[in-house]
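look at this fold:
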Amino acid sequence: MSEWSLHISKCENGYLCRKETDDGDDYFVIEESEVDELKAHEELLWAVMEYFNFQGSKHDKERISIERRKGKEER
């Protein structure tokens, strides 16, 4: 049985991610943006969904998605 894991550490300017697979470790960084405070959080969620294949396909009846919504004051 193949085991995968994803280790996420908060660092000074974003997130350090380590993917563990049977083939070894792979690292990637998600950097925070100075102009968009949600960008790194959104990218991190997408990375987790992609790594574990949570996003599904457009043909699935139900699937998980990430969306941004503006508050009532900003509409």
Q: What stands out?
A: The radius of gyration is 15 Å. Strands lie at 5-11, 14-21, 24-31. The chain has one domain: 1-55. Residues 1-55 form one domain.
